[in-house]
Amino acid sequence: MQLNFIHKPSGHCENGVVSNLLRFYGIELSEAMVFGLGSGLFFAHMPFIRLHGMAVTSFRPLPGEIFSRVVMLLNIKMKKFKFRDKELAMKALDDVLLKGTPVGMLVGVYHLPYFPKEYRFHFNAHNICVVGKEDNVYTVSDPVVVEKCTLTYDELKLVRFANGTYPPKGRMYYITDISSKKTLDKEAIRRSILRNCSRMLRIPIPMFGVKGIRYLAGRMRKWEKRLGSKKAALNLAQVIRMNEEIGTGGAGFRFIYAAFLQEASDLMNEPILREFSNEMTSIGDMWRDFSYNAARLFKKRDPESITYDQLADKLILIADREEQLFTGLEKLMKDAK
Amino acid sequence: MKTNEVPQDGSILEKSGVRDVCYAVDENGEYKQVISVGWDPKNDAINYAWQTINEECEEIKKEIIAGKKSPLALHIHRLVMTPEILAGYSGFTKHQIKKWCKAKHFNKLSESELEILARALNIEVKQLVSTD
To answer: What average pLDDT does chain A have?
Structure first.
């Protein structure tokens, strides 16, 4: 059984799954629009969550949040589940799938056979969509792969119940009813931008949003002294991987958000949003510059490579620019009503 | 980033079907999707992490030869597992796994226990008791 499901690759797994899922129901939203509506831009540096023994830096909200936000704004009904029993989780998937419904799910990447060996770390917040089943083999639409791919029953069971930081616990979600769907209007976009501004500016904990970038900068300055040069370099490499690798985003996410602001500018008839989009693009370029210089530091091939202090300075600059942008954006959206 | 500046530094992704979809502006300032096979700073970060793991594995091998650590410690590290994650996959406790990372306890493991561990690590028992 194969669903008539159009697979398009995307920059970020959850956007991609949501955008592909909505297309199946005849709702055409670009990846950037999904990302923006889901208020997907974020920053968090969380020393209390560890991955490979190091603090987690994330450039996105918790998995599942983009999907929840988008279906809420469009008034689409959906269901989500998590499971304790593995067989039950697979049976629930089969039941829904055989009724002709594509099912999105959260998986760990460690055991995904089509991932390159180098990418197989215990990263458990990857989204895929199951769109077909022949005998024991599932057809899977994974947004980071160009074509559809396949997973056997056992492989899928394994990745759905991956272990480690933030285990997916068989989480799955699907759309149940689109009859009361609202068309995308100015108000929905305005609200989603406001929410994103508030998340970047107003969470009263120093690890999140713009403050989180400054917090990471502060900790970065002490790495070498506190951990020694080897562990410091490893921590930096982890930040870069989270900055650039699929799934967590970083610089790439700034560009997706800029693309969203561009689309929003046309839809809302608000030409000034294009200027915000341009500003976001240059912030994305600053993140890339940060990654580029950081890579030079831990490779140590460069005699003139920069220090942790200088890298932290770059982060502070980024934080200032992002704070300015989101403050301006928030004011614009509040006045727009 | 401009569309013609999107990096195409393939060294990891090109062997697989996985690609990075990047967003960049074209000559008219409009955002477009561009598919990329990777970027050097990112490849370097991944390779650096693996290089460190390999170096640490060599250290562990020395300790195995010295009779302190068991091959299990090596495989856990080589496969970027932790005792906690392996405990989750195998059904043993974290404490048991940690204990078996020492040679004297590892040598007392039964055939069936070794088999469960090997399956959880996705390797053969033959490999589990060796340092390959």
So the answer is: 92
